[in-house]
Amino acid sequence: MHLKYYCDDIDNVLSTVGGTSSGLTEGEAANRLASNGKNKLAEGKKDSLAKRFAAQLADPMIIILLVAAIVSGVTSYFSGESIADVFIILFVVIVNSILGVYQENKAEKAIEALQQMAAATTKVLRDGKIAIVKSEDLVVGDVVLLEAGDAVPADGRVLESASLQIEEAPLTGESVPVSKYPEAIGLGDQSDVPLGDRKNMVYMGSTVVYGRGSAVITGTGMDTEMGKIADALTQAKEGQTPLQMQLSQLSKILTYLVLGICAVIFAVGALREGSFNGPMLLDTFMVAVSLAVAAIPEGLVAVVTIVLSVGVTNMSRKNAIIRRLTAVETLGCAQIICSDKTGTLTQNKMTVVDDFTPDTALLATAMALCSDAELNEDGSVTGEPTEAALVAWANKLGLSKDQLRIDAPRVGEAPFDSMRKMMSTVHLHSDGSVIQYTKGAPDEVLKKCTHILKDGQVHPLTEAAREEVLAANKNMADRALRVLAAAKRTYAAQPESFEPDALERDLCLIGLTGMIDPVRPEVKAAIDKCRTAGIRPIMITGDHIDTAIAIATELGILTEDTTAMPGSALNDMSDEEFERQFRQISVYARVQPEHKVRIVNAWRKAGYVTAMTGDGVNDAPSIKSADIGVGMGITGTDVTKNVADMVLADDNFATIVSAVEEGRRIYDNIRKVIQFLLSSNMSEVISIFTATLLGFTILRPVHLLWINLVTDSIPAMALGLEKAEPNLMERSARSPKDGIFAGGMGVDIAYQGIMVTLLTLAAYFIGHFMEAGVWEITNSADGMTMAFLTMSMAEVFHSLNMRSRRGSIFTLKTTNLILNLAAVASLALTTLVIYVPFLAEAFSFEHISFSEYAVALVLAVCVIPIVELVKLLQRRAGTRA
């Protein structure tokens, strides 16, 4: 049961945890430590290098290759032929697996990073005295003492607060420190209080930035909010990417195809021989192996891995660092991007954007001097974000805090506290005059004012003037600005008392400032690009709903037909109700970690490929649950980076959109590669099958392996590097349910495979006729050599066709130099195999004449005009790619 300590008064909390305000005794603490365990997070399991390598080998495509290698090795042994093809296949498998392990070699370090965020030692009351103990030895009921700079070691309920402010960004995602106080929180009409609003609780992993206080520990180890996140991380499941699913589907299809081919070949062989005997079985088995080698695209696995790896390099140049190879392709089909607000959509830098005052310079001076933020030599500001914004604003107006402090040094102060909601500082001028500046919440400061600055003069604060100030305050607040008021008071000499009650009265209001964390300038265009590309952005933030709505409206995330929802409303909503409504919600505010996971899972369950961004520890479970987890490189915690598939080096939403575009290009190219390789393999299968039925040998297994690994794979790799087509980000996001042959690819593979088969058969018979002078069906060395040359070069020329699945290659405005070089290299290597004597002998080739060579090349070139004609008809018919 989850106890709501924040709703109870201090006495009840101490009673519940079995503690006192003076802490536990050493004996009681030791007993609790022995029974409840240490204040540590559970260790996460890591996969060994061998296990990760084995996981690479478990890929269905790899398994098919290994089976093909074993079968080929056995048949080569019995027939006394070379087993070079076995070593070639094994080399491809090993290189691919090493590439995969190398790219994904960073083991899960999320739990370790969570542990490192915990404090090493803590000041605690034991036996009524202050003691320093290891944080891992803390127990429920301990009273810990906290001051600025301390890391909070466990979850606790605040007992005392002297202006205690804690930054809870790792848990809530919001960088503005939270003021803490000991009073109980009333639920009102809510069923619970969001994590970010529990002002009387402290949480493991957060940091004290101001003031001091004490708290009684209410939860340690895995019972903390951080522990819940660690537990959620271990439970979050990673699903297969769309590409992995499609390659698995392809593997099944190829497996059934190979088995079917073998069965048909055995049946045809038996019918031809009239009986089963040893020679027939061996011959038929050899043909079946040839067909198996022909059907399996040996280079596909390696080509896909290399294309993805090159994509990783390209993305890193654009500030997107990919940690998981397959995430590159998954990005290409992202349909939903759930983004954190602070730092990703906005600049994570509070900035003064509006003011209400007759004297801007005086207002800026008051705000800068009445703050503890410091101006650095490089113009940056160190301090609490709100105060840093005020000092930066003054500096921008030419009012350096360093100079202001020299002119009017601080001689006294009444520090900020959450009850008064203001602070005051007293300054001495060189002429001996004394001025006090007070800044704080407008409604509270206004209560202390009797005068107002107007037209450079001090006037009594009339009701009309008060209404004018309140109207200005409301105007800024309605725009989700954080509003602060500044007032002054002058003295002839230093006041005798610096107590708040003595200083904060009879003030003169100077004016108001409005500040906000402004949106990144490039994000609006990126959001528009998302819309055009059929991608829907969703904002999920720990900030207040008014601020979230203002930013989301400005960026175009929140539209007329969508709504915003606070996390508290999400708590009260059943899963069934949420499933009915989540499509209408574009903004979630004041959310907790479990909300983020719930939102991501709702979209995924509905069949949408979902990306989730985040930087805090609170984002880690949802990032791991998403199809694409995106961590922040600058503000992100180690925990988040370690579970992310991609890390943004610049924390910029626009970088995600660039990465999506790169992902689409890569997936587009992988589909082109698959179509190219499968149409090539289909031509090999049909050629072998037809020749077997007609009773002659058109190509041997070693010829097919050469075509698959050299004349197919080299151009395929180059094809994978093709630049993006112009309309890439104008297409709708593809559905992850689309099969491998979606968009008419199955038909394209079929007709292109048949086309190359017909050209190859034509080359075989023409070759035999040019050598023997007769048209007949028989085994022919010349025919085999010409068939090999035509098929090899037809594949190379066909790779040029595949630069665009629907567009004419003669209208493409870009060139693929690597593909052109690959085509030349394939032609050169194929020519060498035919004409270098020892290679020709190894491949059983005949030395063909120049005229035969030319005829074979002319037949191969025919693939370009034929495919161009079909593409023209497809474009006119409106067939999508």
Automatic annotation (TrEMBL):
| Main location (coarse class) | membrane
* Record field: transmembrane: 61-80, 86-102, 253-271, 291-315, 673-698, 741-765, 817-838, 850-870
What are the entry keywords? Answer: ATP-binding, Calcium, Calcium transport, Cell membrane, Ion transport, Membrane, Metal-binding, Nucleotide-binding, Translocase, Transmembrane, Transmembrane helix, Transport
Cite a single Pfam family from the UniProt record.
Cation_ATPase_C
Q: Which domain of life does this protein belong to?
A: Bacteria
Q: List its EC numbers.
A: 7.2.2.10
Family, according to the entry, reads as follows: Belongs to the cation transport ATPase (P-type) (TC 3.A.3) family. Type IIA subfamily.
Could you identify this protein by its name? P-type Ca(2+) transporter
Source species, please? Sporobacter termitidis DSM 10068
